[in-house]
Amino acid sequence: MPPITIALIVIVALLAGMGGVLDQFQFHQPLVACSLIGLVSGHLVEGVTLGGMLQMIALGWANVGAAMAPDAALASVASAIIMVLALPSGGTSPTEVDHAITAAIAMAVPLSIAGLFLTMVCRTIAIPIAHIMDAAAVKGNFRMIEIWQVIAILMQGVRIAIPAAALCFIPSAAVEGILRSMPDWLSGGMAVGGGMVAAVGYAMVINMMASKEVWPFFALGFALAAISQLTLIALGVIGVSLALLYLGLKQSAEAGGGSATGDPLGDILNDY
């Protein structure tokens, strides 16, 4: 891998690690991180494809109280690098691209757990940094507060940048050889497993959003998606129209007092 490509990948990894804490520019999201790594490595289409599939997995990841979600930043960056290393430099066929993306998806979940351990270490180290900043605040030393704030944020970026740099030095021929030596039953199983993991991530989102008001729209969306003549724009227009219709019915019911709960669709479902 060329040195300039390695440098750009490390920069993307640094931004992804910091984005996992800042949550401002969303560099840690799989779709963003994988796309950027694909861009700097010359595999933009493959990076976007991998990022989209990993994003489906990460849809259901969320911090709940003290329980932290798996780390999407390391999973995205490391799996994208593995995919780039697995793609042959002399041209890629659809089968080789599928094998590379499948292997990257299979590695994403274990890497996300490893990233969770690394971020816990960084957060533990950040505790005394917070006390140092408190002491600087008592003295009115705002410059020192800013310095330690930057150090703490960079620490989160370095935890992704160092593993990313280490992966970049793995010979691509070794990764290609491992993928080629995989039997068909193993690569096929990884493909099926990767698809199931993406479905599980989406199912977690549905489980959090599930309510008697939402299920009819969910079922209707499945029915409309089966119509091949409808484009994504048409489906989006139908969805927005149904949402506006629902909001209009709800507001009219609240204004006229014709519904006991202010939710006409919920009242209809309760009758059944």
TrEMBL record:
GO biological process: phosphoenolpyruvate-dependent sugar phosphotransferase system
Membrane protein topology class: Multi-pass membrane protein
Any matching Pfam family: EII-Sor
CC annotations in GO: plasma membrane
Keyword terms: Cell membrane, Membrane, Phosphotransferase system, Sugar transport, Transmembrane, Transmembrane helix, Transport
Transmembrane domains' residue ranges: 29-54, 66-88, 100-126, 147-173, 185-205, 217-247
Compartments (UniProt record): Cell membrane
Coiled coil: none
InterPro entries for this protein: GatZ_KbaZ_carbometab (IPR050303), PTS_IIC_man (IPR004700)
Protein name: Phosphotransferase system PTS sorbose-specific IIC subunit
Organism: Coriobacterium glomerans (strain ATCC 49209 / DSM 20642 / JCM 10262 / PW2)
